[in-house]
Amino acid sequence: MLPTGMGSQTARVVGFDGADDAGNNTAAGSDASGSTPALLGNDEICCDALGRVRIRFQWQDALDQTGSRASCWVRVAQRSAGGGMGSQFLPRIGQEVQVQFMEGDINRPVIVGALYFGQGEAGVPATPAGSLVDADTSALSQATDHSVSAQSNLTAGYAPAWHGAGVGADAHNNAAAQFGIRSQEYSGSGYNQLVFDDSDGAGRIQLKTTQSGTELNLGHLLHTADNYRGSFRGNGIELRTDAWGALRAGSGWLVSSYGVSHSASQRQTAGDVPAGYGLLNTANTLGATLSQLADSHLSVGIAALKGSSKANASYLNEQAAPIPALGKVLQGMVDSSEVDAAYGDAAAQNTQADDQHLPHHTDPVISVIAKNDLSMTARQDVQFNTGETLNVLNAADSQFTTGGVFRVHSGQAIGLTAGGLKQNTTAGMQLIAAQGDTTIQAHNDMISLKAKNNLDMKSAQASIDFAAATNITLRTAGGASIKIAGGNITVQCPGKILVQAGQKGFTGGTSLSREMNTWPSVKCDEEFVLKLPSGKLAANRKFEITRADGTKIKGVSDAQGKTGLQKGLVIEQLAIKILPKNA
User: Fold this and answer.
1) Lower CB count within 10 Å: N or C terminus of the chain?
2) Rounded to the nearest 5 degrees, what angle is found at the Cα of 269, between the Cα atoms of 264 and 270?
């Protein structure tokens, strides 16, 4: 008759030699069953390839025939088991487990569960039968948002990570509403855990690892310290880590502050994007109006609405410019009845809307949609890099403010158009430098200044200078003109010339180049030092300078060979000749 084991018994998980101290186990090679044992995590787990462990029953003290107090390899029951699937929780050395016997055969033990044992801090101590004693709960009140308390054992054993202490901060604010799964780092204090909290009106889930402080918190957010439920931190979702993070979605990503119905009786689609499309469509309409306005005023249109590298084309859609192409992406619809049909609609970029279809991006784009404000702040740099167009469309005002230098560089054209939508406005376009110069230059082409009404140029404290390499012409629609070209000034008019002055004087001919040398201040000036071919200074020698307009200016150098300043409005080429002494 086989020995029987009725009911269930408790036992300790042990190592090879039967010791329940993880630090005192030594591998002994293959046993009689042929299993090759393994020691893991500084001998904290002793198991074979089948996930079996050894145990020692509470009544098992004497050494067996092999000189060990350990049992045979014992199977561990799991909640699910299958080929390449299931759950796996192996009890570690020193843990107490519950054992049952297959068909009552004591030689066929199976571990069916694990048990906490010992007396935890603030727990009720063991007393003789019939005696009453209160637990010492003073340790519970020592917990804070960032420090634990009452999680150790007053006697040997293991206490649970979560236990019902009571209501109030002095009782961990925990009425036994927390439960979950926690693992333990081998030979360390780190852990991984999944916590469910069913506290009244404060439900939450936490998925956490102490590795780099990485965790996902859902629902009621609060500070926790093991069993202690601390102060309120917020409500919603928090994904955090002390290391780096990445979010990847191969088919697109939607980030939206527009709420959708998500109750037990009604739930809207997860990919709901009509609000985003509505905002984009409004911006599209405004942009199209302003682009047409720019075209009508001979300015630069909006490439995102007309096409950048090719008309009415974009990288996203060969048949539409960037913004219309993005609008089509947000109009995507897929079948809501069958998955295969939905994938087909997505591949075909379907935009047909009806009761049998739900919103879906037609291309893998990232949409960030804010119902109210959207804020993005960086302590250092913010960079926007695109392969095609960068568009900022706003139905109201836009401001660009910088405390340093504001630079705009373009590989092609820069177009600025203002006042097209609001008539009779006094704002127009303003370009003001509170300090320093304002410089407008065209290095390879012309500058054109045009106005429907007056063109007003004033200098409050200095002068207005006009200079040209060939000629300057002032002309009116009536036919009168003044032309300054070379060394000549030509005055023409179909009517009369009226000269009004207190004194009139006509002297000999001169030139602008010669007269500029008498001006107190000009943009360009240069002094030259004359030297002979031998390198010796040409002191007190006659010279002749030929300016760019042909004016010849003669003079005598000083004792250092200097010619004196030559002044001009622009940089020009000139020639200097040292004259013979008898010239």
Assistant:
1) N
2) 100
Q: Is the pLDDT of residue 143 over 90?
A: no
Q: Taking residues 157-182, report their average pLDDT.
A: 80
How far CA 421 is from CA of 274, 301, 425, in Å, comes to 28, 15, 9
Cα separation, 161 vs 225, in Å, equals 10
pLDDT band at 32 (very low <50, low <70, confident <90, very high): very low
Looking at this protein, which amino acid is placed at residue 480?
A
Chosen domain end from 369, 398, 427: 369
Domain co-membership, 295 together with 354: yes
Does 22 fall in a domain? yes
Domain count, the chain: 4
* Residue 362 placed within a domain: yes
CA distance 338 to 349: 16
What sign results for the dihedral spanned by CA atoms 370, 373, 379, 384? Answer: positive
Q: Report if residue 436 sits inside a domain.
A: no
Closest among 480, 583, 497 to 541, alpha carbons compared: 583
pLDDT digits (tens, 9 = 90+) for 420-431: 776 666 678 888
Q: In angstroms, rounded to a whole number, what is the distance separating the alpha carbons of residues 258 and 47?
A: 52
DSSP state of 91: P
Residue 140 CA to residue 13 CA, distance in Å, equals 31
User: What is the span of the domain harbouring residue 230?
Assistant: 173-240
322-350 per-position pLDDT tens digit: 888 888 888 888 898 899 998 899 888 88
> Angle, to 10 degrees, between the axis of helix 274-296 and the axis of helix 322-330?
160
- Strand order through the sheet with 54-57: 54-57, 8-14, 96-101, 109-115, 75-76
Contact 567, 516 (CB under 8 A): yes
Asked whether 565 and 526 are in contact (CB, 8 A), the reply is yes
124: phi then psi, degrees, rounded to nearest 5: -80, 120
What are 393-402's contacts with CB under 8 Å, separation 24+? Answer: 393/283, 393/284, 393/286, 393/287, 393/323, 394/283, 395/282, 395/283, 395/286
Say what the pTM is: 0.71
What does the alpha-carbon distance between residue 169 and residue 174 come to, in Å, rounded to a whole number? 9
Q: Is the pLDDT of residue 30 over 70?
A: no
Picking from 215, 240, 265, the residue at the C-terminal end of a domain is 240
The more confidently predicted of residues 176 and 109 is 109
Is 178 in the same domain as 221? Answer: yes
Domain membership of residue 509 (yes or no) is no
Closest-CA residue to 94 (of 40, 157, 49): 157
Mean pLDDT of 63-85: 82
